[in-house]
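Help! Submission page says 'invalid entity' but I think these are all valid:
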Amino acid sequence: MSGERPVGTRRARAGDRLLHLYTWLIIIWLSSPIAVMIMFGFNDKQSKSNTTWQGFTLRWYAELFELSDLTTALLNSLVIALVSTALTVVVGTMLGLALGRHRFRGKSVTNFLIFAAISTPELVMGASLLSLFVSGNVPRGAVTIVVAHVLFSLSFVVVTVRARIVTLDPSLEEAARDLGATAWGTFRQVTLPAIMPGVLAGGMLAFALSIDDYVVTSFVNGSTVTFPLWIVGAVKTGVPAQVNVMGTLIFGVGVLIAVGNAVAARRRA
Amino acid sequence: MRRLTPYLLALPSWMWLAIFLVVPMVAMASVSLQTGNAIDGFAMTFSFSNYSDAIGRYSTQLARSLLYGALATVAMLVIGYPVAYFIAFKAGARKSMFLFLLLLPFFVSFVLRTISWNFLLSDNGILFGTLKDWGLLPDDFHVLATTFAVVGGLTYNFLPFMILPIYVALERVDPRVVEAAHDLYATRAAAFRRVVLPLSLPGVFAGVLMTFVPATADPINAAILGGRSNTMIGNIIQTEYLTNLDYPTASALSFTLMAVLLVGIFVYARALGTENVLEAAAR
Amino acid sequence: MNPLMRGMTQPRTRRDVFRIAGYSAAGLALAACGVQGQKAAPPKADAVADFWAGQKKNGKVVFANWPEYMPEDKGPLEKFKQDTGIAYEYKEVIQENAEFFGKVDPVLRAGQSLGYDIVVMTNGIQLQHMIELGYAVPLDHSKLPNFQANAGQKYKERAYDPGSKYTVPYTSGVTGIAYNTEFVKEEITSIESLFDPKYKGRVGMMADAQEIANFGMFALGIDPEKSTEADWRKAGEKLKAQSDAGIVRKYYDQSYIDAVAKGDVWLTMAWSGDVFQRQLAGEPVRFVVPAEGGTIWTDNMLIPKGAANPVDALMLMDYLYQPAVAAELDEFIQFVTPVPAVQDLLREKAKAAKGEEKKTLDDMIASALMFPTEADYAKLRSYTRLTTQQEQVFNPIFQSVTQA
């Protein structure tokens, strides 16, 4: 912002600062349960339940991988989330482009299906997918989990990408093509950079949806156990503190990526 | 070739949706008209009364779900819009950092978040227990097991789905356009209303779609945070399906929910007078 | 212009929706044959012999169980492997009965194998459906000598599976009342406390229809095992009045134990094992089986139809009934073991133990939650047994209270 604008600049600055503070407050609000989760990863608990504070220990960090089934579940979840996110982002961005840029037959039906996929209760989606896989004699496992995750995150990517595309000016792409760029070249050089924020945002939503899904996964998992599945099962008798530690590590790695990203962006600027 | 482009772009999604969504939906439509029980089997009787029976029995929960979903969506919009605005226009190089931080809590299992919320919001816990000890709250004050907790939980859990699309739409707006608007209109509020808000509407629409619909169908928040009479339609569908094995009723309720939501979104789109606003935004 | 919006605001949409409806109608005609019933034919006298004739030991078994139901070192399974040479796969895949049934039903209905040789389910509607639908393999008792020798009498004669035709118990627990001694200043002995207006808004009840039905009936002096439809309606009214008076804070699935330990509710319906673990952690909760009655439930092992290794499964089931093995399991699970001899084994172990370990063992041995006395057992009843037709009457009565 240049300081040349005479009217209301000081008030505008104060407003910006207020917004900045507000955003941090929202982040803190969203993260507050995570703080509790991190704390209980250090809880020196004596019984199976982990809900009252009983003193500090690093024991659970030392014994992080003692529960082999839990470790497997976490790895399963990470791999499934990465694969299904990658797939969803590619397929969803393509559809987002088609819907946001083109006229074609079947567009309204597609819009309706996108809506239907969001509004189908998870349980119904999971149960009907299971019936489908059973009647097609498809063995349930990691692959069917990925299929289901792509199905329920697809709409979110499509809707997010499309919200970006409809704000774009098509004349830019036309100009590029007039200048002799190929369709693929135009896409890579012009369209993709312009829709990138939408693609990234959609990807993040897809990842969050996948790694946190319980209901649909519980139907199509066969005997593959994911992180949320394992934890829900453990709730009956008490969640081991290692679960908190793993959550802490996921969160920690995420914060590192976020901050690293910001630092790198500042260097570039 | 160019005429084929949209079909090629849509093809993978179409295949996915046709096999994994349309086929099950057709099967579900069929089941919703059958009668029988899980032990002796179900038979197609075209009993449309499954719908009227289900709606009659559960109209309270259906209406309650729409109310909670709408309340949470409004709350998300009010809370989320300023955040999206800040990140899009004022966060500079830290844009992706902020987005990431907003989403990170949702990479950790909802079970852990829920256990933590129960710890934080407990009647005599770290927050309210302390306030009660200081005499700042009456002894019987509580948040858990209330309507407020359910709507609050929905707001919390779906907030990123409101913020991200609004951000995505706003981020596209050239800051110079905003500045020019400030010069053009007398107040910041007027500049915002005339220029920024219309430009962000596609994002708002996407956000509402991605929050109102799943929030209304959600069973988890009501089950965990709700109390004696906060049951939502998602919980009913779950019980009918899993406990009662009443697949026709569960299917009929799902379709009813879908239809009601579709009508809701349609009314919302009309009420927003979107046609004009969006034409402007898209240009 | 947002295309979705246009899709929804233009009349063209309606036509497209109709087109979808058209496709659906076509599919509907295809699917009109409906979901096939699978009701099991009444078991033939020689069903057991028919099934087991020609089955052989394969040296392998897949055990599907609930999380935290097996010590982390898999001690009992390792010993089984050493003693019998049978390799095991142990999977913690069961989180909830209804959900588990929802998952396995389509698979078993299609005549496919689950990939498990043993599954564990609580006695209740879902287990009953498993048996009625013929999803459970009839057990050959000539191959269950340890069960015959070591299972407690009550665990051999269970109303939901007379003669242990299809199941043997894995572990049991009791539903009673848990209360927080910081907030409840009297000793709770009666079920009436759950209906006492002085605890308004501080009472937790269970959402499960069979669990809450039992407590409604105990409160009215009705034996749930012998109850009729009229009894259920009376119990439903009693529970509805309790809800309308604002006495109940919430109908819980499993989270009641945190709520009562923290004092969000002061007293609640509860499972014994949960409370015992909280007591070990030093939390101010006490468990009581009310004078009017409490519910006993059992998690049972069964062999699902289509299991690849039934002989190995049966051997493992029987192996877990050796007192030493059962003791090792029970020490970890801390519910009620079906093998009474475990109490003596733990007593001997406690004599040799020292310090913290000795104290924990002593607590276990003395606990009525792990080793109920005869007087405790006399008050305990199972869930109401229901036919499919009865279920369709029973469930709505109680669900209209818990899911208002």
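Support: the input was valid. A stray whitespace character was the problem, and the output above is from the cleaned input. The two ends of chain B are 26 Å apart (CA to CA).
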